[in-house]
Amino acid sequence: MAFASTPELLALHGVRIKGFANSNAVARRFALDVGVVDELLQDYEAMGWVQRSGFADVSGWSLTDLGRVENERQLAAELMACDVRSGIASAHADFADENSYFLNTITKWQVRPEPWDPMASNDHSDWRWDERVTSSLGGHLRELRSINGALSDCLQRFDGYADRFAASLERADGGQKRWVDEPGIDSCHAVWFELHEDLLATLGIERGYED
């Protein structure tokens, strides 16, 4: 059976992988009670691990430098306790191989070259172009399901990435194009980016230094 992380780790880690999130978003990600998450994050605020900020009508939590160090300490201790580092590392290698192809697909969604402008923005007027891109995203989903399955067999907290990606892709296929790459929602790109951050944090790898 996969190892179940503690709520204490999940509350802090949820803020890490989302970058900026309120208690509800962190609780939803790991199916935790929002009251428990909010209480933990208030405790972590007192410890200097998280800080609350807001602008306009949006507010949420983010990690401090101390919180990032503490999160990495907790993740390293968890990996040692459940002895699944090799499995996570293997899945990360598969993800890294797929990541460059995925980023190329996202670029094609955002850019549709024209003879007079090779970096012309994709205005999504060419449905054939967009269909080819969403078809490619379907291929990435198949790879993601395999990777996510391997990760979830190691740690329960990795569960759900592929299903979230699939739900976003279904919306995009239905004409809601923003679900491919819009930030601030569970778009395909946002889910992929979050998994990448989760893997880097879990393995203690700095973004940009995976080689």
Can you offer a commentary on this structure?
The protein has 211 residues and is mainly alpha-helical. The chain folds into two domains: 7-79, Arc Repressor Mutant, subunit A (Orthogonal Bundle), CATH 1.10.10; 84-203, no CATH class. The chain has eight helices and two strands, in the order αααββααααα. The protein has helices at 7-18, 23-30, 34-47, 65-82, 85-110, 127-154, 161-173, 188-203, and strands at 50-55, 58-63. The chain has a two-stranded antiparallel ribbon with strand order 1-2. α1 (7-18) crosses α8 (188-203) and α6 runs antiparallel to α7. The protein starts with 6 loop residues before the first helix and ends in an 8-residue tail after the last helix. The relative contact order is 0.12.
